[in-house]
Amino acid sequence: MDFPVFMALLICALTVPGFGDMGSGKAQSCSDIRQFYNGKGFSLNGVPQSEISGEHLRICPQGYTCCTSVMEDSLSNLSRTEMEGLIRDAGRALQASLNGQYKVFDGYLLELLNRSEGFLQQSYPPALGSLYTQNTRVFSDLYTELRRYYRGSNVNIEEALNEFWARLLERMFKGANGRYLIGDDYLECVSKQSETLRPFGDTPRDLKLKVTRTFVAARSFVQGLVISGEVVRKVSQVPLSPECMRAIMKMTYCPHCRGVASARPCAHYCANVLKGCLANQADLDTEWRNLADAMLQVSNRFEGVSSVDVVFLSLPTHISEAITTMMDNIDTFNNKVFQACGNLREGGTSSTGLEEVKRRGKVTVEDSPTSAARLEKLVSDVSRKLRDMQPYWVSLPSTLCSDRVATRAQADKCWNGMARARYLPEVMGDGLASQINNPEVEIDITKPDMTIRQQIMQLKIMTNRLKNAFNGNDVDFQDTSDDVSGSGSGMCTDENCPRGPRLMAPSTDRPKVYAYPPENKKVVKASADHNLPSIALYLLSLVMLLLRR
Q1: Which residues of 338-374 are buried (b: 16+ CB within 10 A; e: fewer)?
Q2: Where is the signal peptide (predicted)?
């Protein structure tokens, strides 16, 4: 070969641009990312002034880049912090809504109880005189027990009502027979006779049914609001996995490293990234919807003739009717008790509180005005919000993507994980099992997140309680840990839960199933602006071939 030809070829090979824009022949400046990086609070020490070779990158595409390994790590941690913050913010917004509904309902129900007791305290002294004033503890204890039950204490509401009627019967029987000496054994006999003689008529039975159904529904409903808010709080704090962290970094900050900071993620690309990252959260969807449906059913108990305001505010009226019934039939009741339990020995006081009540006339208590319109609005508002929250977990990826993705008009120039080009893979379904072929996030679908599985179990437990409450069956909110860590539940509490996936088979028996590699091999690559080293290698090969001739 002629020496001039050799030198010409050698010069061509050595002067081929190694990076930067092919048209300019110069390495692109990194001034934009330097400004961006510094604006995020990072030091500019070690940040290149112009593009460098990207073989060191572990997440972003390894073409020419403005990012060092340190920058990639820093931006990766930042992207994770930012995304976890967005998830927590979305959770806090829903939690605040649920907490607001709880406060409104809880405040209203306690207000009804206070109004009911206040109405009783105002109307009973004029009607009952000393029979009430000397036995106020009997009535106040009833309301105390009702409040304790509503608050979730381990109170049996039927036993509380039975105790109230037993104590009231004891006081009224003593009042009607004040001139006699009445011992505890005799009062026990009187109590047994009341089961068949029914001195208060049908009121205790009817009131027990109404009060139990109403209080069970009210307590279950507000507890449902509390539990759902707690589930949101705990799930929103679940950290993102390392695989998700890589995918979020690749979607968020790799465009800056590649010099295409203006390119926004493709819509379907963002959807796949976040569906993969939030796959476990999406598995809450079924039980979350079931809980909302059960709460909507229970809320129907708050309306109609047996609505919560009617039952709460009519308590004084029903009790006064029962007292009137016993006074109207006291002579008959006494005669039958004397026959069954024996005659009493005189030795008590001459006057009785019951005689005083008879002198005052029949006991009448006007109904307290209800708040039907207010209750109807509360039920309407909470029902609407319960329906709105039903798709929360499966719609969270699209919610988080909505403000960051490219528009349809930019579909050919959006960031697809490798370059500015169209994104071709299809969008995955919702939930962990649907991510087996997710091209963006590596996921082992055989290892669900145990914190989220515990919360799914909590939702199931609460839904079951609400269904029982809708049917009028009492439910116990005490010792909730039994529902989670009991021998039959297969779950555990936060404090005692083993961190390993004890519900899953060992990994040796169940091989891992991963998605496609995180590099998006299905997408269309952009123009080869950053692949110029291959041209230099080609020309050098050509030179060596000519030298052999």
Answers
A1: eeebeebeeeeeeebbbeebeeeeebebeebebbeee
A2: 1-20
* pLDDT digits 0-9 by tens, 428-475: 999 999 999 999 999 999 999 999 999 999 999 999 999 999 888 876
pTM of the model: 0.77
pLDDT, one tens digit per residue, over 397-440 is 999 998 888 787 788 889 999 999 999 999 999 999 999 999 99
pLDDT in tens, 6-27: 444 444 443 333 333 333 445 6
| DSSP output for 325-361 | HHHHTHHHHHHHHHHHH-PPEE-S-S--HHHHHHHH-
Residues in Cβ contact with 432 at an 8 Å cutoff, skipping those fewer than 6 apart: 279, 280, 282, 283, 443, 445, 448
pLDDT for res 174: 86
110 CB-near residues (< 8 Å, 6+ apart) = 147, 150
Describe the chain by its helix, strand, coil percentages, rounded to 5: 60, 0, 35
Contact 454/463 with Cβ under 8 angstroms?
no
Give whole-number Cα distances, 340 to 190, 196, 333, 343, 530, in Å: 9, 12, 11, 9, 105
Contact (CB, 8 A) for 525 and 418: yes
Give the domain ranges of the chain.
36-71, 72-459
Q: Which residues, at least 6 apart from 150, have a Cβ–Cβ distance to it below 8 Å?
A: 109, 110, 113, 215, 218, 219
Backbone φ and ψ of 50, nearest 5°: -140, 170
Nearest Cα neighbor of 109 from 262, 396, 301, 270 is: 301
Q: Is the pLDDT of residue 1 over 80?
A: no
User: Which of 434, 436, 431, 412 has its CA nearest to residue 423?
Assistant: 412
3-class SS of residue 412: coil
| Helix or strand (DSSP H, E) at 451 | helix 450-470
Alpha-carbon dihedral of residues 206, 210, 216, 218, nearest 10 degrees? -160
Rounded CA separation 490/500 (Å): 14
**Phi/psi at 345 (5° precision):** -95, 130
Tokens linked to 273: 């990234």
Residues 6+ apart with CB under 8 A from 181: 344, 345, 346, 347, 348
Per-residue confidence (pLDDT) for residue 393, from 0 to 100: 97
DSSP 3-state of 357: helix
